Amino acid sequence: MSNADATSSPNPNIVPSGDSATLQQPLDLIRLSLDERVYVKMRGERELWGKLHAYDQHMNIILSDVDEKCTTIDEEHPEQGLISQNRKMEMLFVRGDGVILVSPLSD
Predict the structure, then answer these.
(1) If you write DSSP's letter for every residue of the chain in order, what string do you get?
(2) Residue 62: half-sphere exposure toward Cβ, Cα within 13 Å
(3) 76 strand-pairing partners
(4) Closest listed residue to residue 51, CA positions, set 68, 38, 42
(5) What are phi and psi of 57, to 5 degrees?
(6) Which residues pair with 46 in a beta bridge?
(7) What is the full per-residue pLDDT of the chain (107 aa) written as tens digits?
C-alpha cells in the first residue's frame, strides 16, 4: 500500500469509493449510525428504538430518547394471545450479549 493510499481514508477499514465509503468491517455500519436513530432487536421479544451514542466491540450500546416494546404471552390467560408493553426512557445502557440485531432507521 502506498502512502497516498494510506492517507486517502481517515479509517483504514473504510475504503473510499466514489461519493460514498465502502464498508469493510461489520461494525463500520454501526459507526456510521452514531448520533442517528437505530432499531435494536433484543433477546426475549424486546425491541428498542433510539439515538445511538456509543458502542463497543461487545455490542454494549448507549441509547437516548429510547422507545421500548416488550412482547409477552399472558401465562394466566394464554387464549388472549400476545401482550405488548411500551415505555420511553431518556437514556439506556444495553448489554451486548442480549443484542440480536442493530439497524439504522431509514428516514
Answers:
(1) --HHHHHS-SSTTEEEETTEEEE-SHHHHHHHTTTSEEEEEETTTEEEEEEEEEE-TT--EEEEEEEEEEEEE-SS-GGG-EEEEEEEEEEEEE-GGGEEEEEEPP-
(2) 6
(3) none
(4) 38
(5) -65, -15
(6) 42, 70
(7) 444 444 444 545 444 444 456 678 888 889 999 999 999 999 999 999 999 999 999 999 999 999 999 998 877 777 778 889 999 999 999 999 999 999 999 76
- For the entire predicted model, the pTM comes to 0.74
C-alpha cell at 51: 439515538
73 neighbors 81 (Cβ within 8 angstroms): yes
CB crowding 8-44: b at 16 or more within 10 Å, else e: eeeeeebeeeeeeeeeeeeeeebeebeeebbebebee
Q: What was the pLDDT predicted at 18? A: 46
The closest alpha carbon to 73, from 99, 41, 44, belongs to 44
